Each structure stands twice: as C-alpha cells, then as structure tokens.
Amino acid sequence: PVLVVDFGAQYAQLIARRVREAGVFSELVPHSITAEEVAAKNPVAIILSGGPSSVYAEGAPEFDTSIFGLKIPTLGICYGFQVMARALGGTVAKTGHREYGATDATLTGNGGVLLEGTPTEQNVWMSHGDSVAEAPEGFEVLATTDATPVAAFGNADACFYGVQWHPEVKHSDHGQTIIENFLHKAAGLPADWTSGNVIEEQIAKIREQVGSARVISALSGGVDSAVSTALVHRAIGDQLTAVFVDHGLLRKGEREQVENDYVASTGVRLITVDAEETFLGHLAGVTDPETKRKIIGREFIRAFEKVQRELVDEAKAEGEPIKFLVQGTLYPDVVESGGGSGTANIKSHHNVGGLPDDLDFGLIEPLRTLFKDEVRQIGRELGIPEAIVGRQPFPGPGLGIRIIGEVTKDRLEILREADAIVREELTAAGLDQEIWQCPVVLLADVRSVGVQGDGRTYGHPVVLRPVSSEDAMTADWTRVPYETLAKISNRITNEVAEINRVTLDVTSKPPATIEWE
Ligand code: XMP
Predict the structure, then answer these.
(1) Could you say which of 26, 171, 189, 409 has the lowest number of CB atoms within 10 Å?
(2) CB within 8 A of 74, min separation 6: which ones?
(3) Coiled-coil ranges per the record (predicted)?
C-alpha cells in the first residue's frame, strides 16, 4: 500500500481517498508509527499529511525520521513537507507570513516530475504559518509563492518530494495531477487498484474464511449493509441469509425497495421481520432522544436475535451451523475506533446487528478497508439498483429521531409523506450529488396558525435540513435554490394535510449536529 501518515489534520483521509482515486491502494497510519512498523508493511510509497501545528510548537506531532532512511518514495504535504525539510537538513522558519486560502504559486522551470503538466502559474490552497526557508541539500525548488521561497521541492534520485499547499483539496487547481504525478511518474506505481479487483479479492477471501458454514446478515436498507450483503452473496450464494427488520421507522418505499428491487437484482435470500408494533409499543410516551435511541437499538437487536436463533436451530438441524455474521463496517469507522483520538460520544450511534453474548459468531466485514464512495462503486458493479446504492445516509433509528416529541404511527405517516416529497424534488432538481443528506424533521409538539382556502389551520411545521459534507464529521447547510425550496414548500403544504409550515435549518455542524436528535 501507499501509507498516508496522519499528523492529526482532517486532510489525511482525503489524501488516502485521492490516492485510491488514482488507482493505488492506500492505508492510513498514525504519525507515531516506527521505522520497523513501516518496513513491516512493505509500502510502495509514503505520503505525509498536513497537521494543525508548527513543527516548532510544543506538542507538535512527532515522526520517526529514520523512516526516511528506508528509501521509500515519499511525498510531504504542508506540515509533512516541513517535517521532511527539517529531517533532511533544510530549514523551516517562522517567517511571520501566514498564508491561508487561495494563493498563487509559480513553478520553477517545468516544476520537475511532481508538477509536470501543470501551468506555470496556478491557484493553490494554503494553510500554514511556518515556511521552508531552505530546501535540504540535493533538493531542487520546484515552486514558489510571494510569501514562500520554497513552496515545493524534490529530489528525483531519492524520490522525495514535498509541497507546502494541499493538493488533496478541490480548491487546489491541479491537485489530483500532482498526486498522480507523484504516484505514477515519480514512484512508478501502476493504476491497478479498481473496484473490479476489490470484488475478486474479497470474494476469494470470503470463500476461504467461510468454507461450507452458513452466514447471516442484517440488512438495514442503507448502502453499507446492502453492498456487504451482496458481496458475500456473490461469494457464497445461498449459504447466506439476510434479515431485514421493519421497525416501522423507515422511509416511504424503503421496505419495498429491499424486498423487491434488491432481492431481484442480487438474488439474496431474505427474511423480513415485521416489528412495527413492538417498536412503536416501546416508544410510546418517550420523547428523550437518547432514550429513543436506546430503545430502538435494543429492540433491533432483540428482533434480530429472535430470527437468528430460529435460523441457528434450523441450520443445526440440517448439520451446517451458522458461524458468521456480515457487518458493513467501513474504513472511516475502523480508523476512528483505532485512532484513539478520544472523540467525545456525542450521540450513541448504533449499528445494526449487535452481537448477542452467547452466540459465538465470527465477523465478515468485506468493506473494512473502503470509503463510502468506493462502496457505492462496488455496489453498482454488483448490480444493486441506483436507488439503493445512491441513497443518502439514513440513521439506524430512522424517522424515530426525526420526530421531535413522541413517535406515533400517525406522526410517522405525516413525516414519511413530507420526506418523500423532499427526496423527489431534490432529485428532480439534480441536487443529489451536492447534498450529503437532507433530514426532514417533524416538530410534532409545535403547532402554528395558518390559513388554507377559507379556513384557519393549526398544524405542524417541518424543518428541512439539507447539508453538504465529505464525511458527516463536519457539515455546512446546502444553499438549495429558492425555486426548489418553493416547490418543496408548496407541495408539502398542499399534499400533507397536517403540515402548514415549512422551515429551513441554516446551521452548520458544528455547532449543530446533522440530525436534530
Ligand atoms: P449527527 O447528527 O451526529 O449525524 O451529525 C452524523 C451522521 O450520522 C448519522 N446518524 C446515525 N447513523 N445510527 C446510524 O447508523 C445512528 O444512531 C445515527 N445517528 C446519526 C446521521 O444521519 C449523519 O449522517
């Protein structure tokens, strides 16, 4: 793999994704990694990410500089560029000139292999205080800016390169070219990491892991479980049974999509559990968000366990016990839980298919190394319908945490209709790519006066919460065109009798979260 060393900035995951977009497999590692650990991973290249601090700051993230002695092609970015400069004998100075945001960079000559094919003057995205004042011996300066005499450098013999700016962000005009130049031209790596190869590789691995045992999988209706289930099915066919719990908190058409379209396109053997009454029974009278989440999580596991036990008994009777459970864990989950960065538990997220203690299952997690966009691509190649693969993230507790107040069947029905209209109109307006997700929230305990026809109404408001995001950790509210908002508002107030007001949430995350509960 290409190792992306994470110095604690949010840019590291983005770099890892850009490397994969260039067709090369990448893996994130913490900056505390030692030279031996790096050597053991046998990387084909290393990229040092940006970081929040100055190399001179107290508590600045450290790095085992003997890693440079391993002679692995290396690209330093921003903080990583400065770490590299300092370790190899250059100087990093506090110039007092901060550069932040869009900056003009000028290539020296043709910019070397790293900047080859990009224009002499280009717009790059900067975010730094210190600067590299002198490149290490043996290095050529490849670009400069007004404030930074050494904005990029390279040593072609050692295959060491660095840039002060952030080529991984879309605001840097030729960022992806630079990353590809480093990978393909400087380090000589072929672009052979494709979703087709990932599928092949995973199928072989799953077959080996499972043998002739049986496997179950919990389908949530979301992208991750849909793709992991389909992938496992592709590997072992009817040794797999998928279980879908309908908790009554789903969106309009979701169950049908899973039961009809998903099954038709994948051939997965599916059992649906009707659990609406049980869930709504336990949610009656509950308004506290965390309590709702706990109840939904617990009931989900109960419903799933019940079917699981039945299947286990059946399998035992037939002499091929169930030994594995499929989970749609993604790479960001793995990185976050292994990173130990002490992120506060803001909301108790629950993932489907929590393991009961007394059942001894192994886990199959075929998406563990993948990012969401890669998972979608694999889903498409497996033939899963776009309506499922392209689906926006939807929380496990479903509409239950989008009704502010008690969750009841009637309220769910109202919200389901409004939500369907919003999804329809956003898709019709071509906004699906721009919008990460758009929760529709029913303020069920709030009423306001309206007028419709000749009559006074006293109905509920809904809140539209369209957000743009790369990873849901941070988000900004999406500037949806007024005409689209007008259409949504018109349709909802006309078509959903109990709603007489449509409002827009214009808060970023932080300080707000994406969901309201
Ligand atoms: P927040 O509201 O914390 O949401 O900004 C971040 C992302 O996570 C989704 N979300 C959940 N997903 N179970 C899930 O599987 C949950 O309990 C849950 N709560 C929030 C949310 O939709 C957004 O994409």
Answers:
(1) 409
(2) 45, 46, 47, 48, 68, 84, 159, 160, 161
(3) none
Total structural domains in the chain? 3
Q: What is the pTM of this model?
A: 0.82
Give the other-Cβ count within 10 Å of 57's Cβ. Answer: 12
- How far is the centre of ligand 1, averaged over its atoms, from the C-alpha of 293 (Å)? 11
340: left (phi over 0), alpha (psi -120 to 50) or beta: left
Segment 173-195 mean pLDDT:
96
Q: How many Å lie between the centroid of ligand 1 and the Cα of residue 34?
A: 35
Q: Are residues 16 and 124 in the same domain?
A: yes
CA distance to 157, 268, 464, per residue, from 468 (Å): 42, 33, 13
pLDDT at 392 over 60: yes
Measure 191 CA to ligand 1 centroid, in angstroms: 34
Residues tagged active-site: 78, 166, 168
Which CATH number covers residue 78?
3.40.50.880
Q: Which of 349, 441, 476 to mutate to test the pocket of ligand 1 (most atoms within 8 A of CB)?
A: 349
- 8 Å CB contact between 511 and 461: no
pLDDT at 53 over 90: no
Q: What is the DSSP string of 342-366?
A: -----S----S-PPPTTS--EEE-T
* Residue owning the nearest CA to atom 6 of ligand 1: 472
Q: What is the pLDDT of residue 514?
A: 96
Distance CA 99, CA 255 (A): 51
- The SS3 assignment for 92 reads strand
If asked whether residues 203 and 108 sit together in one domain, one would say no
Burial of residue 200, with CB atoms counted within 10 A of its CB: 0-12 exposed, 13-18 middle, 19 or more buried:
exposed
Domain range for 361 is 195-389
Per the annotation, does 512 bind a ligand?
no
Which of 225, 347, 469, 516 for mutating ligand 1's site (highest number of atoms within 8 Å of CB)?
347
